[in-house]
Predict the structure.
Amino acid sequence: MPLAAAVAVTTGRDDLARELAALPSLADHPGPASCTEMGGPLVPYLLGLDYAEGRVWVAASAEPNRCSGASNGRFETRRYAGGLMKAVADSNG
């Protein structure tokens, strides 16, 4: 899927980091994802967050079922984070 937009996160970054850090890991909560599987648009987000130690990429999708989780490649969660990613992108775009 081609990149649709790029947004520099200048506001809400600390809140975003705090909320992402509070998500439970898939390793700690490995149960099956529950989903109604009703249709609707899926909008993928990929955020690159720069820190002194380096860049952290976080991927999640916003979708009406609120079923998709999030991952940074080393950490994965079933908890829906797409709405959070959309809100941050919208408030910085």
